[in-house]
Design a protein that fits this description.
The complex is a heterodimer of chains A (about 325) and B (about 375).
Chain A: H1 20-27, H2 30-51, H3 53-56, E1 65-66, E2 69-70, H4 92-128, H5 130-145, H6 148-160, H7 166-197, H8 200-208, H9 212-224, H10 228-248, H11 261-273, H12 278-304, H13 307-313, H14 317-323
Antiparallel strand pairs in A: 1-2
Helix pairs in contact in A: 2-4, 2-12, 4-5, 4-7, 4-9, 4-10, 4-12, 5-7, 6-7, 7-9, 7-10, 7-14, 8-9, 10-11, 10-12, 11-12
Chain B: H1 2-14, H2 19-29, H3 32-41, H4 43-60, H5 64-69, H6 75-85, H7 91-103, H8 117-152, H9 157-171, H10 174-188, H11 200-206, H12 216-223, H13 226-263, H14 266-273, H15 278-316, H16 321-330, H17 334-362
Classes of the chains: A mainly alpha (about 325), B mainly alpha (about 375).
């Protein structure tokens, strides 16, 4: 990867030029830059659609008729229903647009919750060490090794008994996903904490008599978070897939309380067999484009922060950090 | 296990070559024998933790009888049924009893169709195993050669196209790929069957076999009936491709990054300067060390594939564990759900162990 420029922060860079995504765009080249920008554009569209869904969507997500009467079920795309109607007589376009809200809500809830809990547990576990650390690591490993969809299924049974209202459904999907993601944040932060614990500046803080919580949250936390944007993007895309997966096997959000793409795909299975493509293709494409956008951003950031470049700058430290 | 798990995670998440980390951590632990032993013993706490977590989670909401029959029986009848089944005893007692039963191979009885969970597991487990087997075959035969090509033509257009395809493969949910494949190959073109494992006529033929094996393809080959073999294979193609594409993309990325890593090693440069042909260089010298992380990651992929199998089986009505899991969930039969989830947990733990053993045996740096 010799053609990737080494990250050098020149003093005249303003603060916003050093922000994770902005800095990544600035130092990317060629295909890499194309991938990153495509990803950013797709993610931006997802976000904008979610925010302005009430203005963009022609109908509500659970509307089966307008002033001119009922839409009819399983209607092919027409000037009235641009993307056709579903087996329940909902407007496909409206459901696809409203679905972005559900997806974004779940991403935000899930990622914030797992960030918070995972980072906290990782910091404490890595800093304190001992038997607490061992037990937490074992738990995290056991959960990590388990198929995440199955865990999410178990969690959604626990939380909602399998059926739910809009916010109940969004929250239960988010919490299910959170449980799956905590181990990932936990492992990364724990490994970083253990590495940083041995650094001279932490020693120095101890000598000066700084309390443990201050060392943990000020000295270690601030330094341990540089890998988080990457996990964030990976998890955001996985959150959409898990939500859709839950919806697809019938453990999602009820169609009258919110629009959810996985549920729509589940209902479109029979349509596909009889050759009706519009009920499956559009919600499916919405999932693909959302996940693609976020993944492209994450992937490009991963490549730009190539560890082999970092190794050169901090010799010998990298290996310990990964294996710790 | 932590160390290997950590390294595996790095490879899956960040797709970085991390062989030295594993080697380093194993060297600290001592010889191969000791490593394998600790690794083997670690299966048990893993399974125990998962069993405990799932058991208590499923019980937070209440007992399985109320979940399955609540609303259909009067409160008195319900209380009596709960009492008969022993679900009103302290949860710790129930937990210990459950553990004891599992040890003797008794996973309980399903509510909805009153079958021992173990029978359900053996009947449908083979179908899932068959599907996952085909899917791994698809994933390997796509991922490895294409990953080699992408690494060798690095930053050229082939690499760019393949990488975008791999990301697309990851971004597309397995059930959406499944539905698209169905739409194209079954409905529009009519080449392949829409769903199921075998046609009705095939099933009749299959019934004539004396001692059926759990695998349809094996039985079809044993009968020597070409039509039947084609029937079974044609039903398997779309589910296997749908599930295999997902993992194939991940293999492609892994092979690519790792091969790029090994191609930069000095021994490759020295072999090249000795005049070793380029194809031989990639296939013989660089590929083998690059494949070790792939094998390690396969363990993690089996867990992911089982999750994907649940969705694939639902899409194609492939009557395996995942299909049954969805069925039991919709009838709120949580004893069955718990049994199937447990079974999958055991499979994941064991397959991770096997993969670690294989990786330890292949990597010569562990043998000394």
């Amino acid at each position: 990867m010799t053609d990737i420029p080494v990250i050098v922060h020149t003093p005249d860079e303003t603060w916003w030029q050093r922000l994770p995504v902005v800095a990544d765009v600035r130092r990317s080249v060629g295909l890499q830059r194309g991938m990153l920008i495509t990803g950013l554009v797709l993610s931006g569209i997802l976000l904008v659609t979610a925010i302005f869904a009430p203005l963009l969507a022609p109908f509500s997500w659970a509307q089966t008729a307008d002033a001119a009467g009922s839409f009819g079920t399983q209607q092919a795309p027409s000037s009235r229903n641009l993307l056709g109607t579903t087996v329940s007589g909902f407007d496909v376009l409206s459901r696809v647009i409203w679905g972005t809200r559900t997806a974004v809500a779940v991403i935000i809830a899930a990622v914030i919750a797992s960030l918070f809990l995972g980072v906290l547990l990782g910091l404490v576990s890595g800093y304190i060490g001992g038997w607490l650390d061992r037990i937490l690591v074992m738990l995290a490993d056991a959960i990590y090794a388990f198929p995440s969809l199955l865990l999410a299924i178990v969690m959604s049974i626990v939380i909602s008994g399998g059926q739910s209202s809009a916010w109940g459904g969004i929250l239960s999907a988010a919490i299910s996903i959170t449980v799956v993601f905590i181990p990932q944040y936990f492992r990364v932060i724990r490994a970083e904490t253990i590495r940083l614990k041995a650094e001279p500046f932490v020693e120095a803080a101890k000598v000066v008599g700084a309390p443990h919580w201050r060392i943990m949250f000020r000295h270690i936390f601030r330094n341990a978070t540089r890998t988080l944007p990457l996990i964030f993007t990976l998890n955001a895309s996985e959150a959409i897939l898990t939500l859709a997966g839950l919806g697809f096997i019938g453990f999602g959000i009820e169609p009258t309380s919110a629009a959810e793409w996985g549920y729509d795909l589940n209902r479109s299975m029979a349509d596909v067999t009889s050759g009706m493509w519009w009920t499956a293709v559009f919600p499916g494409l919405a999932i693909v484009l959302s996940v693609l956008g976020i993944t492209l951003v994450g992937e490009s950031m991963n490549d730009l922060n190539d560890p082999r470049l970092r190794t050169r700058r901090a010799t010998g430290r990298r290996k310990k950090e990964v294996s710790a | 296990m932590n160390d290997v798990g950590e390294a595996t995670q790095v490879v899956t998440r960040d797709a970085q070559p991390s062989v030295p980390v594993e080697v380093q951590s194993r060297r600290r632990k001592g010889g191969l024998g000791r490593y394998l032993l600790t690794r083997f013993l670690l299966i048990f706490p893993t399974i125990l933790i998962l069993m405990t977590v799932v058991f208590f989670l499923m019980r937070i909401t209440g007992d399985p009888i109320t979940a399955a029959l609540g609303g259909r029986l009067t409160p008195d009848q319900l209380a009596q049924r709960v009492h008969e089944a022993g679900y009103d005893r302290p949860i710790i007692v129930q937990y210990l009893e459950y553990l004891g039963n599992v040890l003797t191979g008794d996973f309980g009885t399903t509510f909805s169709d009153n079958r021992p969970v173990l029978t359900v597991l053996t009947t449908y487990g083979s179908a899932t195993a068959e599907l996952v087997g085909y899917a791994i075959l698809v994933a390997l035969s796509l991922g490895i050669p294409l990953g080699m090509l992408a690494a060798y033509r690095r930053d050229k257009w082939q690499d760019a196209v393949l990488r975008v395809l791999a990301i697309l493969g990851y971004a597309t949910p397995v059930f959406f790929i499944g539905l698209l494949l169905k739409l194209i190959f079954s409905v529009t073109l009519g080449w392949l069957p829409v769903a199921g494992r075998i046609s009705t006529a095939g099933e009749v033929k299959m019934g004539t076999i004396a001692n059926p094996s759990p695998f349809y393809l094996l039985d079809a080959i044993r009968l020597g009936d070409v039509e039947l073999i084609l029937d079974v294979v044609s039903h398997a193609v779309l589910p296997a491709v749908a599930l295999g594409l997902l993992t194939g993309g991940i293999f492609l990325r892994l092979v690519r990054t790792n091969l790029i890593g090994t191609l930069e090693q000095q021994y490759i440069e020295s072999a090249r300067s000795r005049g070793v042909a380029e194809t031989r260089l990639v296939r013989k010298h660089a590929l083998r060390p690059a494949l070790i992380p792939v094998i390690t990651v396969m363990g993690m992929q089996i867990a992911m594939m089982l999750g994907g199998a649940v969705l694939t089986e639902t899409t194609f009505e492939w009557k395996g564990l995942g299909f049954m899991l969805a069925q039991y969930m919709s009838s709120r039969d949580y004893v069955a759900v718990q049994g199937i989830v447990m079974m999958l947990a055991v499979i994941v733990a064991v397959s991770n162990f096997v993969v670690d053993v294989v990786a330890a045996l292949i990597d010569p740096r562990v043998r000394y």
